[in-house]
Design brief:
β17 and β18 form a beta hairpin. The chain is mainly β. The protein is 7% helix and 50% strand. The strands form 8 sheets. It has a 22-stranded antiparallel beta barrel. A 5-stranded mixed beta sheet has the order 1-6-7-4-5.
């Protein structure tokens, strides 16, 4: 404990304990004269879920749904808002909720999109524009823990390369779950000692419905929807059903729910892959007679004074070439200030997704003091994504494989910051590339919850649970065909948008213009090929949780809580490679032409508003059949395939007090204070590819490494609520928190991606990210169902984790040259390698403003209107290490300085309509950027507008109309904070939904 965090923790622990003791002394005299506090409740719909209010002095642990009021019945969206505001008001921690029908009332395809209406929550979108992760108060997905029915959960899905190619860490991918299988979610922004550690940003609780939550003995509800997207042009189904039944005089209940949906998504756009200064990869081919000549004369390549390469004449103009050379930038190298796309290309992505999930719950309440429930939950998210690109690869290749030095520049222009505005080139290699990515994410969980109150003052709760999250990707197959040395290739950004007009100088819709064959000259000239990217790949995360809690109400309004927990998380990755003899590119089988194994990407230019009307692409299924790919053989660690894992065993215990000074002080102060002790045992292993002994079957094998370590943390916390008036209350919170490193970073492995010349070196000795936090808020509940609040939050992050990027020769990584076999790379090529390390942290500060107003004071029908709105402002200062000698200060990754959400709604007995606008400011995705002379890789700001309407034909039938992305917003990634060169932008299109709900 002799560390800054340890000293801070012990100091805070003493402060918390002293304050708790003082409040306890003040509260004790009131024990004989103060009745137990009754938690205020909000009304619920007739068939909505209800739970009896807690009678403990504070509401810690998992937030419960409020009970009904007998005198007033409010239904629908307004009722769910009342329930959420009631939970927020009565909890001692800072908690925002979405309950009951509220989740299903918005056009949300998944839970992440539901949560973007919560103050301080910003949404990160992935492929197809779907919400995938959340950032809470500036802290990204890696800092957010998710509990499902009280047990920590893990969810991992795949992604395209631009979005990180998939999740192998602790980040929770919400898009794997249908919204309909949950009845409530809560975002806990401040910790309590009885809530397990692991979050720097927030703990999100997802709750499935229970049968005894409902007032009626039998409940049946079913919803069916048809979903249409204007780019995909298909109608997709989505349906859900819930059945609940009570038995034995309402003491025993069974509930089952099931949801199913299919989506066919399409997005079109542009990708640059990277933005690099012109001198990278050897610069361009110099004009005839220019000194020094580039590239130098090489008879084997056909390079001489007149030709860049064989049959590829030097056509660069002196003016264009000198324009590039004259831009020197911060490196002062010729061409160092001229920035061009590495692989300028158009993108067409089609995704077929099938999402299903279900719950089964048995609940028994034999008496008012006992509650036993057994919850089972299952979900499956099955995806096939087909990405197709048409673009130029010459700008990202060296002279070794006929790249940039063999490309002539006829005309070129840059803006004042050095970003390419227009370019006309000859000798350009054009590639039509396809990527088929299949994956299935499954999640299974079972939890047993037990609660028994032995007396009015003593209660025991316990939980035992097991979950298994599996990500399985049987196929990630890249196929491509090439056009070599095309003339008249152009890139034009002068239209003022983020997407350039690309001219290919040849008909890219004609498969006869492309080639697919083995390289005739040792990969200098590449004529097509394929890659499998380490598939099949399996990631398994198995979690076990056992916990017990005691609560003793020592006197009225003062209680002591204690408990212990054991958690085990076992994470493993297993990959496979094709056996080396099957990696080489083969000639097309006899009788097979490219025309017979290709297809057309149609309507492309029409949908994007730029680019070719259509272009030819290899049909992956036809290619696999032509080459017999499904019969190819694979190997594991015996030929260098991935295999690694991390097992964490976490033992923790806590002691805390809860208190309430009602009737003692001039105004009521309630809260909790305590400390949590955590011991973490970490065991990790990995196989590192190494060169095999001479005569071995495979040139590369895996060598296993094991690392075992442990560490401990003391985490004090305190939450106080001061009820200044019946409508005005102030909150204060202070705590020491920690967040463990991403699981993938802890495996002792290293490796490279040859196609992008990037690599990673992991670090199993990474320390957790630790921080001390402070929160304060003022909340005014000025009218029923209404709230105005402002909150300030501060986090002092004492240590951080960064992947420090260095550009080094492949030969310096200690990896075998055999990993480069069958590729155009050589051991001398420069690779960008990221190494994970603990670095100094920094401070994060912010505030959020929240308004929820029911306009019931307005006359007539206007009284049925209401508004919701929130705004969050966050700033941080983190020192990033760009290289061994260079640092910079910037915001946290995934932090948007500004985020806002607004909803206007109208609701009466039959009709409901509402619209929501969600804004997220730009945020950093990577520092360093992974590119020379560019500081950051970032996401541009977005504003998404959604709407929903429903009409109750009767008590049992409701019609639904929904619309998403009404403004046809696009998602844009860029590089460098000043130039903001486009890395990636796609059009997602608008989505419309029509449906109906029946209930009994």
């Amino acid at each position: 404990m002799n560390t800054p965090l340890g000293r801070a923790a012990m100091s805070a622990c003493g402060t918390v304990s002293g304050l708790a003791l003082a409040i306890a002394i003040a509260a004790a005299p009131a024990a004989a004269q103060t009745a137990p506090q009754t938690t205020p409740t909000a009304p619920q719909a007739d068939t909505g879920p209800v739970t009896p209010p807690t009678d403990t002095p504070t509401g810690t642990g998992t937030p419960e749904l409020p009970a009904e009021e007998q005198d007033i019945v409010v239904t629908g969206f307004r009722a769910s808002l009342n329930s959420a505001i009631n939970i927020k008001r009565n909890e001692t921690a800072a908690i925002d909720s979405i309950v009951a029908e509220d989740i299903g009332k918005f056009p949300d395809s998944n839970l992440a999109e539901s949560m973007q209406r919560i103050p301080g929550v910003a949404l990160s979108r992935g492929d197809g524009g779907e919400g995938k992760n959340i950032s809470v108060r500036g802290l990204g997905a890696a800092f957010t823990r998710v509990r499902i029915n009280g047990m920590e959960g893990t969810s991992q899905t795949g992604a395209s390369d631009i979005y990180g190619a998939g999740n192998s860490g602790r980040s929770f991918d919400f898009n794997a779950f249908p919204t309909e299988i949950f009845s409530a979610l809560a975002v806990r922004k401040t910790p309590s000692a009885d809530v397990e550690e692991g979050s720097l940003g927030a703990t999100v609780d997802l709750k499935a419905p229970h049968p005894l939550d409902f007032k009626t003995d039998f409940v049946f509800t079913a919803t069916a929807r048809g979903i249409y997207n204007e780019l995909a042009k298909t109608v997709d189904p989505r349906a859900s059903v819930l059945v609940s039944k009570k038995f034995a005089d309402g003491t025993l209940g069974v509930l089952g729910s099931f949801a199913y949906g299919k989506r066919n998504l399409r997005e079109v756009g542009y990708s640059a892959v990277n933005i690099l200064p012109a001198y990278i990869d050897g610069g361009f081919c110099s004009p005839v007679g220019f000194a020094p000549q580039n590239p130098a004369t090489n008879a084997a390549r056909g390079t001489n004074a007149a030709n860049c390469s064989t049959n590829n004449p030097r056509t660069s103009t002196t003016a264009a070439y000198n324009t590039i050379q004259g831009l020197r930038g911060i490196t002062n190298q010729p061409g160092g200030g001229a920035f061009l796309p590495r692989i300028p290309r158009y993108v067409n992505s089609e995704q077929d997704a099938e999402r299903m999930g279900g719950t089964l719950t048995l609940q028994w309440k034999p008496d008012e003091n006992t509650d036993i429930s057994l919850d089972g939950l299952y979900s499956r998210f099955k995806v096939e994504r087909r990405d197709n690109y048409i673009g130029a690869i010459s700008f990202g290749r060296t002279a070794t494989n006929g790249g940039k030095p063999m490309t002539s520049v006829r005309d070129i222009a840059f803006d004042s910051l050095g970003s390419l505005q227009y370019g006309l080139f000859d000798g350009v290699d054009i590639r039509s590339e396809g990527l088929v990515d299949r994956f299935t994410s499954t999640f299974k969980q079972g939890t047993l919850n037990f609660e028994h109150r032995f007396s009015d003052r003593f209660k025991v709760t316990a939980l035992a649970g097991y979950s298994h999250s599996r990500f399985y990707s049987p196929l990630r197959l890249q196929t491509f065909m090439d056009i070599i040395d095309a003339d008249g290739f152009s890139i034009d950004f002068r239209n003022g948008g983020n997407i350039p007009t690309i001219g290919f100088g040849t008909d890219v819709a004609n498969p006869g213009n492309f080639s697919y064959a083995p390289s005739p000259d040792g990969n200098f000239t590449v004529l097509g090929g394929f890659s499998t990217a380490g598939r099949p790949l399996t990631q398994d995360t198995r979690n076990k949780t056992f916990e017990g809690n005691l609560e003793w109400n020592v006197v009225d309004n003062f209680a002591v809580k204690a408990g212990g927990q054991f958690r085990e998380s076992d994470f493993q990755i297993r990959g496979q490679n094709l056996i080396p003899s099957q990696v080489a590119v083969r000639a097309l089988p006899a009788g097979t032409t490219l025309a017979s194994i290709t297809r057309q990407i149609t309507d492309f230019g029409k949908l994007l508003g730029s680019g070719p009307a259509e272009f030819a692409a290899i049909d992956s299924k036809k290619w696999r059949e032509a080459f017999g790919f499904d019969s190819f053989q694979y190997c594991g660690v015996e030929c260098g395939a991935a295999r690694s894992g991390v097992r964490e065993q976490i033992t923790s215990g806590y002691l805390m007090t809860t208190f309430n000074t009602e009737g003692v002080l001039p105004f009521t102060v309630r809260g909790d204070a305590g400390v949590r002790y955590v011991h973490t045992q970490q065991d990790s292993f990995g196989f590192i590819p190494v060169a095999a002994p001479a005569g071995a079957q495979y040139p590369t094998v895996g060598r296993r490494g094991d690392v075992n370590r442990s560490y401990e943390d003391w985490l004090p916390s305190m939450n106080l609520v001061a009820e200044i008036t019946p409508k005005l209350q102030a909150r204060f919170s202070a705590a020491a928190v920690m967040s463990r490193p991403e699981l993938g970073q802890l495996t002792p492995v290293s490796g490279v991606t040859v196609a992008t010349r990037t690599g990673t070196v992991n670090n199993p000795f990474l320390d957790p990210i630790r921080a001390n936090t402070f929160d304060a808020a003022l909340e005014w509940y000025f009218a029923p169902g209404s709230l105005l609040s402002v909150a300030y939050f501060h986090k002092n992050i004492e240590t951080y984790i960064q992947s420090i990027s260095e550009q080094v020769p492949y030969s310096s990584l200690g990896l075998p040259d055999a990993l480069l076999d069958g590729t155009p790379s050589t051991p001398a090529d420069i690779f960008t390698v990221n190494r994970s390390n603990n670095t100094p942290g920094g401070k994060l500060n912010g505030f959020e403003v929240n308004a929820q107003v029911q306009l019931s004071f307005l006359p007539g029908f206007l009284s049925n209107f209401g508004v919701l709105g929130s705004y969050t402002r966050v700033k941080s200062k983190i020192t990033y290490i760009l290289s061994p000698i260079q640092t910079t200060v910037d915001d946290l990754i995934d932090l948007s300085k500004n985020a806002a959400s607004g909803t206007l709604y109208y609701e009466d007995d039959r009709f409901s309509i509402r619209g929501t606008a969600s804004y997220r400011d730009k945020f950093n995705r990577g520092i360093p950027s992974g590119a020379n002379d560019s500081d950051v890789r970032a996401n541009a700001s977005t504003l998404f507008v959604d709407a929903s309407a429903s009409y109750n034909i009767s008590e049992n039938l409701k019609l639904i109309l929904e619309a998403q992305n009404l403004t046809d917003e696009r998602n844009t990634l860029f590089i460098d904070s000043k130039r903001q060169d486009t890395l990636f932008e796609t059009r997602l299109g608008r989505t419309f939904t029509v449906g109906a709900t029946v209930k009994f």
